[in-house]
């Protein structure tokens, strides 16, 4: 009962916030609605028992992707009202894509109910008593340790590449020298004077 | 820790690259010592290859092969990476901003290539390929202020991404229809009653297409001339040598291991790619005026011959491919080392064929070395480049592919034209402006060594190299 209630709650809020993503006037509000949609989708996934994917959705999509969107929306001077001006003109095109997606979903569900398509299905992994996260961790850090570590190296290469291709040391900016700042003493920088009135001060 | 012993060479290169990067970040930039450390790491990895249990076979649940075949390929890859680093000494400006990143990226690319030749699982294969390719994209546009270098990197990245997508599509089909990503399991699926399954065949075709891009075999070769021309010459040398050999050996392993039962399915693809590469590589090189573009077409041409050996299949085919790759790498690295010597009076690199005219009068030794490499690449008999071609044709004839061998041999004659044209320009044309004489004894020594190996003296190597390659090919 409570699960059913939770499902309808999450589902309703997901759809409602997804609609609001499109109809919100302010692009920043759109992104915020998107984050709400992500959270509720994560709730839906949680209800099906895939807690790892739910957490992944929150961490990756809410934590990184949506925040990145927010940055882009707030930092870049994009005129969103002009982007939206072609809405009615592009409506048939959008409807067509929506129809194609709908057809694909229907076909996929139908195919899934017709039984396994593939000639040689791999044996489904045994459902152990361990949780999803534990099972994933065991697989990643034992059997797939080497590909997993190599994937880490690939990300490292991406970082090095980004620095090599974009970084330049600029001569015209004054960098911060923390060492010099810390080693500066008050007596070097300030002095106590007793100005006599009417004589002015030396600077 | 003993179970990690089979991957000791990879561990040396990978962990060494990370450590080198960290140390280089905290010390004075622009110094050359990082290059020497990287070379030492690569040589240490080669020593470890000899010392480590390279007969361990399949390790990590069958995902990784530490066998003679992989060791043969890794020695080639690591040594050509070391040569690529040596080449960079005189190429990059003295205090180049990112001096330390170059050897680190070469090390990581070599690591990816090493994983490629060892992979016996589609996931491992893909991870290795991506590690190698991503480093290569960055290396191609390493001189980012140079327009051609940036163009080469971008072109390589976009087309490489497309090829990775095609490869992944093939991998997913293979996985879907065989139920496993391991080569052994895929071979079982190909041998089973579903051998005629259209899904498996599609997977095979897409996987081979993705790999054909990486080895620059026709019809997936379009990126090669532009990338080879635009990338910095030391990087191009690594692309043409280590990287290409890694991809060829990867294709060999996947064809002879995972797809062995589907011989007829992949053989026709390989035969087409081989013939098309040989002919197009030879014909398209005619109008080239840039030495690096010429060598790019030469590498397409040579890949075709290696694929002839692969088409033969079996142990003999694998041995021919290994032998061919080893000699091809020596010829290619030698040729690129000579290209590095082409500098005008101000020390700027020149790449046009015309600048070579009359080189025999201004620089007789350099001209002789280039002539040796060109004759050898053309496969003209007294030179050692002839022998691997003969081995490849021999393997093809033994496998019953007489027509293929005949056609490839005929196409060799077309290719000989442009190799000989270079020699003609150097020996019979009026001298052009002489090149600057750089002082780099190590490079001179490497050119001399490479020229010695591909000279008729190289025939002394047939015994030991033949034994090594036979031993390496015995895994199939």
TrEMBL record, chain A:
The keyword Hydrolase does not apply. Residues 175-203 are annotated as: Disordered. Gene3D superfamilies: NADH-ubiquinone/plastoquinone oxidoreductase chain 6, subunit NuoJ (1.20.120.1200). It is found in: Cell membrane. The keyword rRNA-binding does not apply. GO terms for molecular function: NADH dehydrogenase (ubiquinone) activity; oxidoreductase activity; quinone binding. It comes from the Bacteria. GO terms for cellular component: plasma membrane. Keywords: Cell membrane, Membrane, NAD, Oxidoreductase, Quinone, Transmembrane, Transmembrane helix, Ubiquinone. It is an enzyme of class 7 (translocase). InterPro entries: NADH_UbQ/plastoQ_OxRdtase_su6, Nuo/plastoQ_OxRdtase_6_NuoJ. It catalyses: a quinone + NADH + 5 H(+)(in) = a quinol + NAD(+) + 4 H(+)(out). The chain crosses the membrane at residues 6-24, 31-50, 56-78, 90-111, 144-165. Pfam families: Oxidored_q3. Its EC number is 7.1.1.-. It is a multi-pass membrane protein. NDH-1 shuttles electrons from NADH, via FMN and iron-sulfur (Fe-S) centers, to quinones in the respiratory chain. Couples the redox reaction to proton translocation (for every two electrons transferred, four hydrogen ions are translocated across the cytoplasmic membrane), and thus conserves the redox energy in a proton gradient. PANTHER family: NADH-UBIQUINONE OXIDOREDUCTASE CHAIN 6 (PTHR33269:SF17). NCBIfam families: PRK06638.1-4. This is NADH-quinone oxidoreductase subunit J. It comes from uncultured Sphingomonas sp.
TrEMBL record, chain B:
The chain crosses the membrane at residues 6-26, 33-52, 64-88, 100-117, 154-177, 197-223, 266-287, 294-314, 320-340, 365-387, 399-420, 441-462. One of its GO terms (biological process) is ATP synthesis coupled electron transport. Its EC number is 7.1.1.-. It is a multi-pass membrane protein. InterPro entries: NADH-Q_OxRdtase_suN/2, ND/Mrp_TM. It holds the Pfam family Proton_antipo_M. The keyword Membrane applies. It is an enzyme of class 7 (translocase). Keywords: Cell membrane, Membrane, NAD, Oxidoreductase, Quinone, Translocase, Transmembrane, Transmembrane helix, Transport, Ubiquinone. GO terms for cellular component: endomembrane system; plasma membrane. Residues 119-414 form the NADH:quinone oxidoreductase/Mrp antiporter transmembrane domain. The keyword Cell membrane applies. It comes from the Bacteria. It catalyses: a quinone + NADH + 5 H(+)(in) = a quinol + NAD(+) + 4 H(+)(out). It is found in: Cell membrane; Endomembrane system; Membrane. One of its GO terms (molecular function) is NADH dehydrogenase (ubiquinone) activity. NDH-1 is composed of 14 different subunits. Subunits NuoA, H, J, K, L, M, N constitute the membrane sector of the complex. Belongs to the complex I subunit 2 family. NDH-1 shuttles electrons from NADH, via FMN and iron-sulfur (Fe-S) centers, to quinones in the respiratory chain. The immediate electron acceptor for the enzyme in this species is believed to be ubiquinone. Couples the redox reaction to proton translocation (for every two electrons transferred, four hydrogen ions are translocated across the cytoplasmic membrane), and thus conserves the redox energy in a proton gradient. This is NADH-quinone oxidoreductase subunit N. It comes from uncultured Sphingomonas sp. The gene is nuoN.
């Amino acid at each position: 009962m409570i699960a059913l209630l939770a499902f309808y709650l999450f589902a309703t809020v997901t759809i409602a916030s997804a609609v609001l993503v499109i109809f919100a006037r302010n692009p920043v509000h759109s992104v915020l609605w998107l984050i709400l949609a992500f959270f509720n989708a994560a709730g839906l996934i949680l209800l099906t028992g895939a807690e790892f994917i739910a957490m992944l959705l929150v961490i990756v999509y809410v934590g990184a992707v949506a925040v990145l969107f927010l940055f882009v929306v707030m930092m870049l001077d994009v005129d969103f009202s002009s982007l939206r001006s072609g809405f009615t003109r592009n409506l048939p095109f959008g409807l067509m894509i929506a129809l194609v997606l709908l057809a694909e979903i229907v076909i996929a569900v139908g195919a899934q109910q017709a039984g396994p398509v593939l000639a040689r299905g791999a044996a489904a992994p045994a459902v152990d008593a361990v949780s999803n996260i534990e099972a994933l961790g065991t697989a990643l850090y034992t059997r797939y340790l080497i590909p997993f570590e190599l994937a880490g190296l690939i990300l490292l290469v991406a970082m090095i590449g980004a620095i090599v291709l974009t970084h330049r040391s600029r001569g015209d900016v004054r960098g911060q020298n923390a060492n010099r700042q810390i080693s500066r003493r008050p007596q070097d920088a300030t002095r106590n004077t007793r100005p006599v009135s009417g004589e002015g001060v030396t600077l | 820790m003993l179970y990690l012993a089979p991957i000791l060479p990879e561990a040396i290169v990978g962990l060494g690259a990370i450590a080198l990067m960290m140390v280089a970040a905290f010390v004075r930039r622009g110094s050359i010592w990082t290059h020497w450390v990287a070379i030492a790491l690569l040589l240490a990895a080669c020593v470890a290859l000899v010392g480590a249990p390279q007969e361990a076979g399949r390790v990590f649940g069958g995902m990784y092969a530490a066998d003679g075949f992989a060791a043969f390929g890794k020695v080639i890859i690591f040594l050509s990476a070391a040569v690529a680093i040596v080449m960079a000494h005189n190429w990059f400006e003295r205090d180049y901003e990112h001096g330390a990143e170059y050897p680190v990226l070469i090390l990581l690319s070599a690591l990816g290539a090493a994983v490629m030749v060892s992979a016996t699982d589609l996931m491992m294969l893909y991870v290795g390929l991506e590690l190698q390719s991503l480093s290569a994209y960055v290396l191609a546009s390493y001189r980012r202020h140079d327009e051609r270098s940036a163009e080469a990197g971008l072109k390589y990245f976009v087309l490489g991404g497309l090829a990775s997508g095609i490869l992944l599509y093939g991998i997913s089909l293979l996985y879907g229809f065989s139920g496993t990503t391991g080569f052994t399991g895929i071979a079982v699926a190909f041998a089973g009653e579903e051998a005629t399954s259209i899904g498996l065949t599609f997977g095979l075709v897409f996987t081979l297409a993705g790999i054909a891009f990486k080895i620059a075999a026709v019809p997936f070769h379009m990126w090669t001339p532009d990338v080879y021309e635009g990338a910095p010459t030391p990087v191009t040398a690594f692309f043409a040598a280590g990287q290409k050999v890694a991809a060829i050996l990867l294709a060999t392993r996947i064809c002879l291991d995972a797809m062995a039962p589907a011989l007829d399915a992949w053989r026709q693809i390989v035969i087409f790619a081989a013939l098309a590469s040989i002919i197009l590589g030879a014909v398209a090189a005619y109008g080239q005026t840039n030495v690096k573009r010429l060598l790019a077409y030469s590498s397409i041409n040579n890949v075709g011959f290696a694929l002839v050996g692969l088409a033969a299949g079996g142990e003999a085919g694998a041995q021919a491919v290994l032998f061919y790759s080893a000699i091809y790498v020596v010829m290619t690295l030698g040729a690129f080392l000579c290209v590095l010597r082409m500098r005008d009076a101000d020390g700027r690199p020149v790449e046009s064929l015309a600048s070579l005219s009359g080189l025999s009068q201004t620089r007789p030794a350099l001209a002789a070395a280039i002539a040796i490499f060109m004759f050898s690449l053309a496969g003209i008999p007294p030179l050692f480049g002839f022998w691997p071609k003969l081995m490849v044709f021999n393997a093809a004839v033994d496998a019953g592919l007489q027509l293929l061998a005949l056609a490839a041999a005929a196409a060799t004659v077309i290719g000989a034209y442009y190799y000989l044209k270079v020699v003609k320009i150097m020996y019979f044309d009026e001298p052009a402006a002489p090149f600057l004489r750089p002082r780099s004894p190590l490079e001179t020594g490497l050119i001399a060594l490479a020229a010695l190996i591909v000279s008729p003296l190289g025939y002394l190597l047939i015994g030991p190299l033949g034994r090594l390659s036979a031993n390496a090919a015995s895994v199939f």
